């Protein structure tokens, strides 16, 4: 259960935007969660907004007090400390509502999907085009964090969907990005 939280607020400078810093911070958190094999830390973005679309410059971590202390004892913020202001670990406000933050993937590039299909199935370009029409593409309308894959070094957008608010907390596990389709985090 998520009883405590702490906030990491990125501080942009003239050379680096808040979005770039948040992406770097979130990437480091992901690596820390993978290395520590954690599935008990959830995240939220207190400034999450659909209009204008964005996640803001604050990353909030949710878990038990002891779990957050354990995470923060590791030096996963190395190199980011000048760009991040961190709060103390605090208890979640008593009457907070709850919601989920989950990853949402979109089929955004028909040409890339065709190339992949041709490679996987040995099809010609014509066969792949017939199987994957251009109408399959969707324009994402969700906020995202721009990350870089640590396995392929390719940049990608991690689209994040927030659920509607609910009164009751739902338990469960979080993935290595601190996201879950089922487990809720406090929203305040």
TrEMBL record:
**Name under which the protein is recorded:** Type I-F CRISPR-associated endoribonuclease Cas6/Csy4
**Entry's CDD domains?**
Cas6_I-F
Origin organism lineage: Bacteria, Pseudomonadati, Pseudomonadota, Gammaproteobacteria, Oceanospirillales
Instruction: Mention one GO molecular function.
Output: endonuclease activity
- The domain of life for this entry's organism is Bacteria
The record ties this protein, via InterPro entries, to: CRISPR-assoc_prot_Csy4, CRISPR-Cas6/Csy4_sf
Return one Gene Ontology term, BP aspect.
Answer: maintenance of CRISPR repeat elements
In its UniProt entry, the species of origin is given as Thalassolituus pacificus
Instruction: Please give one Pfam family short name.
Output: Cas_Csy4
